[in-house]
Write the structure tokens for this entry.
Amino acid sequence: MANIKSQVKRNRQNEKRRVRNQSARSELKTRVKVATKAVDENAADAPDKIRIAQQRIDRAQAKGRIHKNQAARRTSRLMRRSAKG
């Protein structure tokens, strides 16, 4: 346990950020999974699910939840999969 006041504060901040980032990333994974499932099943609402997943990826990247390159990679994979199926 830290015994320096600034480090105690930093630990609290890091924990808050970790929880916030974790929930955002979890939601991101869910949206992408739902979109890929819709594409694989040729669902009628697949374009909507893809659009929502893309929005979540872009928002997570803009807020610094995921890295810029990771966002680009995830979007690319999603679009490649939708074009194929």
About this structure: The chain has a mean pLDDT of 94.
